[in-house]
Structure formats: C-alpha cells, structure tokens
Specification:
Strand content: 35-45%
Shape: globular
Number of strands: 6
Number of domains: 1
Radius of gyration: 15 Å
CATH class: Alpha Beta
Distance between the termini: 46 Å
Helix content: 25-40%
Structural class: alpha+beta
CATH architecture: Roll
Strand order of the largest sheet: 2-1-6-5-4-3
Length: 137
C-alpha cells in the first residue's frame, strides 16, 4: 500500500520532534538521495541520512521542527519549516556554543512507488545559522 505524501511528511516531523533518528531514516528508501542546497555533499542511502539526523539531534538536543506550510502535488511535496534548538554538541566542526537558534528552511521531496522518500532537497538559512552561532562566514 502506498502512503500518501502528507502522511510521510507528518511522520517525518513526528520523528524529528521525538528525537528518533531511526524513525527519521525509516521514511527514506534504502537508496534515497538527500541534497543540501549550497553544499557539495550529497547523502546517499538511508544509513547516511540516519547519521545526519544523529548529528543534528546531538548538536541540538532540544531540536524542534515546526511545519509552516505544506504543498502536495502527486508524488511530490514541498514544505516550509522552522527549526529551533540550543547548540550543545559539535556541528560542522563548530564546538558547542550554548546559543539558541531559529533557522528557516524549505524541503522539496519526491516519493517513490513504495511510499518512501527517494529524494529530498533542503534549502536552509545556513548564513543565519552561522551568525546565530557567532561564527563569521
């Protein structure tokens, strides 16, 4: 049975807010691709996506993701979100600052035939994040 894109989107937000990296990874196909706009790194596969979740949840143990808007078009959806958290762990080589952050972003998702995410493209305000952490860009 195919899951609807909005169900997967709901499951994704619930997993992030439960701080469950396994559940975050579970919405992705084994061979999914995750692209961070502006970064040369492309994550390939569910395991790499899980590790990214672990990194973010460790860096921000009070990580919270709020959906602002969701648009669905067949097997694709786009959502705008706000991430908040307190920087308490290593992030991109930046040691913990103890600073609270609020980062806006958007994700464009393509679903596969089995109801799992096959591609995510993230756009996040990385300059704003670095400024809030006190890191000059």
């Amino acid at each position: 049975m195919h899951r609807r894109t909005w169900e997967v989107n709901d499951a994704t937000y619930a997993a992030w807010n439960a701080h469950d990296a396994d559940a975050v990874a579970a919405v992705f196909a084994e061979d999914a691709v995750l692209i961070e706009a502006g970064s040369p790194n492309v994550l390939r596969g569910r395991a790499a996506i899980r590790e990214r979740a672990v990194t973010l949840l460790t860096a921000f143990p009070d990580f919270h993701l709020e959906r602002i808007e969701l648009l669905v078009d067949g097997d694709r959806h786009a959502d705008r979100w706000i991430m908040t958290g307190t920087h308490r762990g290593l992030l991109f080589g930046i040691p913990p600052t103890g600073r609270s952050v609020r980062v806006a972003g958007a994700t464009f998702t393509r679903m596969g035939e089995h109801g799992l995410v096959v591609e995510d493209v993230h756009f996040a305000d990385m300059a704003g994040l670095l400024a809030q952490l006190g890191v000059s860009g």
